[in-house]
Amino acid sequence: MFAKIFDVEDLTRRDSAFDAVAKFEDERVGIGLKTWIHTRDLTYQKVAEFNKVAPIEFSPLIEEKEYDELIYKISELRNERIKLDKRQYNTNHEIYHNITRDNNQMNVVETNYDLIQLDSLKLLSQTSKTYVFSDGLNTYKYYASKSVLLKEFEASPDKVLEKIPIIQFDDPFELLKMIELPVQAQEEVQDTIYLPLYSDVQMKVEEKSGFNAWNAAPKNKGSNILRPEYEAYIPIPKWIHHTFPKFFGFDALDRRERNIASSFTLHLPDDRKFKAIVTQDSGKSLQTNPQKILGKWILHDVLGLQPRELLTMEHLMKLGVDSLKLTKLDNTNFKIELADTYAFENWKIEIEDKIRESGSRMPTLRPHLLEEE
Asked: Which residue numbers delimit the Restriction endonuclease type II NgoFVII C-terminal B3-like DNA-binding domain (predicted)?
């Protein structure tokens, strides 16, 4: 509802630190949305989940009773995700926009979207399942059993920006009966694929190809000239072209079609647009011209790496991302955005299940297993 009324970009279906991004002339604002029933002025609300990293990063610290290290690691990873999305969506400001529902009114409260101050952390209390800590600006609570981080929000009278009268229905189903929706044409389902930031064969980020192509040997044999900073390309596993043969509007496995195909436009999360092509043997590479345009955006602008700094699986795990989501708008326009850890692998499992259900011939979706055999 917020996104529709205020005409902002809705991020609630994405694994993002923000729920929406608003654009005001040259300003881009990352917005966190929270709603709760106003039973008291102070309340804890969930701000982050750590389901994937908690067993690896947090559980050992809890077992060793390293609680100061635990709250530091939680705070560090929370900050990294916020900074990642600030870079990805190129935001200038960030806020929490909160609505609390009281008797026959709703209260509008806005607060700062702060990074956690790592040098001011203090553990306030802990049990076997909860850890409460402060950074001097805000108070947080980590639930180990659910791997979630909550932040304390205040909605006392002096924090309320506006009070809006509302009518509360005792039976919401009676209200729904009053709503008549026009019959709408079925929305067209957009084609989507996922591309790994790592090698689908080696299950790691290669040091001299893909996003580390800048680290490969010089193009001219015997030359000492280094490849350009941020030279990179997105690896496309061959099985994706077999399974989605016309995703890019042409048969990427056919060299002739690939060579005569025109470039297409990549739409970035921060509204920038780049021209790109599918190239190399078997269409294994998605790249811009020059290649460093793509590399600088992903490696520097989004992932925060410095020139000639290797991308590693450890860095991706720390940020909670390891793949890219590519959504086809039409044959010449594609939306590209980061996808969270295991998104590519989970998508691959879904594709395998669909192929089995259809009874079609199963392509080789797991080349790294064949190599091991």
From this structure: 203-330
